[in-house]
Amino acid sequence: MEETNLLRGKQKHYLRAQAHSLRPIFSVGKNGLNETWLDQLTGALEKRELIKINLQQSAEVTVADTKAYIEGNTDIQVVQTIGRVLVLYRPATDADNQRFSPVVEDM
């Protein structure tokens, strides 16, 4: 895992605003958190840079557990948590997929 720069307040505010209209595309269910799930998150973030995930009612982990697991095992940053929904950000490595990161870097 590589070390990433933590987002500053202005950057998080921008990303939260951009994520407002997004729908969660991943969920955490009774199968919990694992490497395969993290790989899928990373792949989705490579294409989108900003996604929402939600914890299903059947999930045996908390939002705090999920946030700690993601941030502890990847370079993905949790921008915001709202109830059982987490907003995740990771700059894309492919320039064609960089929709938010150029703006975030300039802030």
UniProtKB/TrEMBL annotation:
This is RNA-binding protein. Signal peptide: none annotated. The keyword RNA-binding applies. The keyword RNA-binding applies. SUPFAM superfamilies: YhbY-like. Pfam families: CRS1_YhbY. GO terms for molecular function: RNA binding. NCBIfam families: RNA_bind_YhbY. Keywords: RNA-binding. Residues 5-101 form the CRM domain.
